[in-house]
Amino acid sequence: MKAVRYWSVNNARWLRWVYKGLETCLTTIYPLLKWLGYQRLDSGFFAVEKLVKGFLFDSKSCGQCTLGETGMACPMNCPKTLRNGPCGGVRANGNCEVDPDMVCVWVTSWEGSKRIGNPESTIQVIQAPVDVRLKGTSAWLRAVRKNWGVDE
Ligand code: SF4
């Protein structure tokens, strides 16, 4: 829902704190998650992520979450699924070229990044192209493994 998505960007600062806190907690219990087995946990984590991130961010569950770097705006809501900045068609009022009733995802991303603070250090992180094979898997568990330097 666009209204909730915009609300989340307007509240990006504290939402990112919550997000980082959750990541820290999950990273801390990595040995337990590993012992339980990622394959076994993935579908449960994914279901929770889909519910929470779907409601708050209109997340498309790509499995490679960039919310922390994109001002708590999910770039997969861009009709062209651009992950590294806007296309050349942003309208003069800041709305999307393809969906004129929607604020361009990258306009909201920039606003959210400014609210978080020091936007240049986050939004300028180059995001890899989306890997469709990861759609429908837990981005949170992937982030935990990445923090521990564990390959996919
Ligand atoms: S205007 Fe923004 S949201 Fe719309 S297609 Fe271009 S980059 Fe994506």
Query: How much of the polypeptide forms β-strand, as a percent range?
Result: under 5%
What percent of residues adopt helix (DSSP H or I)?
40-55%
- Secondary-structure element pattern, one letter each: HHHHHHH
Nearest-integer average pLDDT: 92
Radius of gyration: 16 Å
3D shape: globular
Q: Any low-confidence stretches, pLDDT <50, length ≥5?
A: none
Question: What's the count of strands?
Answer: 0
- Terminus-to-terminus distance: 32 Å
Instruction: Note the main sheet.
Output: none
Structural class label: mainly alpha
Number of helices: 7
- Total individual domains: 1
Small molecules in complex: iron/sulfur cluster
Report what the structure shows.
This protein is mainly α and 152 residues long. The protein has one domain. Helices cover 51% and strands 0% of the residues. The chain is built from seven helices and no strands. Helix 1 (2-10) packs parallel to helix 5 (105-116) and helix 2 packs across helix 5. The longest helix is centred in the N-terminal third of the chain and has 20 residues, at 38-57. The model has no long low-confidence stretch (mean pLDDT 92). It binds iron/sulfur cluster (SF4).
Topology record:
Layout: H1 2-10, H2 12-28, H3 30-36, H4 38-57, H5 105-116, H6 120-123, H7 139-147
